């Protein structure tokens, strides 16, 4: 979650004297701070050229820049805003340049994107947006490109954002509403279609304010998300976490999870409770997914000690990087249950172990590095509760990784479906009779949510869908939920969370 960098507004006071570079390390005494636009360009060009992720590149660039809080915030807004609004910006550039963006040199195009975002979305004066873009072009792409950038930028600043939006949308047939929304809210049209289908199938009643739910969803996707912390129960309370926040830090309790805390202007990595693993950074949608599994009712079950209503062996089948695992483990510890975790990637398995390090001894059984599709055959009927946070397209977290919307393709969803079905089948095989599986994805796309569950249940006679609506209503009665029983799809514009899908299935 990189957005906290732009909101911190605080200097590093740990080392007096020579200015720091934002990471706490001293920078050379005579080295001037970097220009925010240059930093934004360097990150943007690397994202464009190498499919790198902003949330990995930007913090490093900011730490090395020597900029103050204002400069870091400016660069952060430039980078994330350019990625979020790239679709609209490219339409504007193509119109102003009178050529397709594919025909513009990639480096020059990145300069123009950064300049157009300043002119249309930030309070940067027109003359500054033009002149700074020309300077950036001259330093990064050569003097010959500066004249072209100058001409295009002058055309762009001649109209405001609303005028350009009207021009771009008016060129699309009114009978193609998804494409018009795609341009207006800067999303690929196929993603708009997926979100529309998900909403229509979700079971939510129409909103009283008559706002177009798809437009509201897309608008929410373009807003920077809050930083949300989780106070892991039994390890630290939410009040104790609040008491450790920096003075004057903005915060509010989570809207839905009893363990959530939303913060602004806070670097979570500097909080002692987070560093110690007693708390973590976790979106409320993810917290609700873990809570749904923990709250789901079990049936019967006997073991060798003749205990009934067994609830002491849990599994997180796709655990990396471990945020949900740690919350599940904290809940398991309160019930004297043991949680096993599985993560096939060695690197992510290491992150899981680090995330659960503060849990009471004996809470975590093992952390496996195995193919989850084999666990059901190797451990049949063992577990009382199993979480399957299946690998997916990630369409539910585009507000956090805006660059991903331009990389994803419809075929990505199709390719993952066999893996998702196999993982769910394996989880059901590993669950005892009367036990519960939570199938979860960070995506609203029907082909990796309810259709996966439908397909698996159609093939099995030993499993049944539970009412996740009723379970989550027990977690928080105020949570907006579908009007019909069954699965729950969370939406950004309703819940302010990532767009998590939650289905609960009982093994019969």
Automatic annotation (TrEMBL):
<dbReference type="InterPro" id="IPR006027">
    <property type="entry name" value="NusB_RsmB_TIM44"/>
</dbReference>
<feature type="active site" description="Nucleophile">
    <location>
        <position position="442"/>
    </location>
</feature>
<dbReference type="InterPro" id="IPR035926">
    <property type="entry name" value="NusB-like_sf"/>
</dbReference>
<dbReference type="GO" id="GO:0001510">
    <property type="term" value="P:RNA methylation"/>
</dbReference>
<dbReference type="InterPro" id="IPR001678">
    <property type="entry name" value="MeTrfase_RsmB-F_NOP2_dom"/>
</dbReference>
<dbReference type="GO" id="GO:0003723">
    <property type="term" value="F:RNA binding"/>
</dbReference>
<dbReference type="Pfam" id="PF01029">
    <property type="entry name" value="NusB"/>
</dbReference>
<keyword id="KW-0949">S-adenosyl-L-methionine</keyword>
<dbReference type="GO" id="GO:0008173">
    <property type="term" value="F:RNA methyltransferase activity"/>
</dbReference>
<feature type="domain" description="SAM-dependent MTase RsmB/NOP-type">
    <location>
        <begin position="217"/>
        <end position="508"/>
    </location>
</feature>
<feature type="binding site">
    <location>
        <begin position="318"/>
        <end position="324"/>
    </location>
    <ligand>
        <name>S-adenosyl-L-methionine</name>
    </ligand>
</feature>
<feature type="binding site">
    <location>
        <position position="371"/>
    </location>
    <ligand>
        <name>S-adenosyl-L-methionine</name>
    </ligand>
</feature>
<comment type="similarity">
    <text>Belongs to the class I-like SAM-binding methyltransferase superfamily. RsmB/NOP family.</text>
</comment>
<feature type="binding site">
    <location>
        <position position="343"/>
    </location>
    <ligand>
        <name>S-adenosyl-L-methionine</name>
    </ligand>
</feature>
<keyword id="KW-0808">Transferase</keyword>
<keyword id="KW-0489">Methyltransferase</keyword>
<dbReference type="InterPro" id="IPR023267">
    <property type="entry name" value="RCMT"/>
</dbReference>
<keyword id="KW-0694">RNA-binding</keyword>
<dbReference type="Pfam" id="PF01189">
    <property type="entry name" value="Methyltr_RsmB-F"/>
</dbReference>
<dbReference type="InterPro" id="IPR049560">
    <property type="entry name" value="MeTrfase_RsmB-F_NOP2_cat"/>
</dbReference>
<protein>
    <submittedName>
        <fullName>16S rRNA methyltransferase</fullName>
    </submittedName>
</protein>
<feature type="region of interest" description="Disordered">
    <location>
        <begin position="1"/>
        <end position="38"/>
    </location>
</feature>
<dbReference type="InterPro" id="IPR018314">
    <property type="entry name" value="RsmB/NOL1/NOP2-like_CS"/>
</dbReference>
<dbReference type="GO" id="GO:0006355">
    <property type="term" value="P:regulation of DNA-templated transcription"/>
</dbReference>
<dbReference type="InterPro" id="IPR029063">
    <property type="entry name" value="SAM-dependent_MTases_sf"/>
</dbReference>
<feature type="binding site">
    <location>
        <position position="389"/>
    </location>
    <ligand>
        <name>S-adenosyl-L-methionine</name>
    </ligand>
</feature>
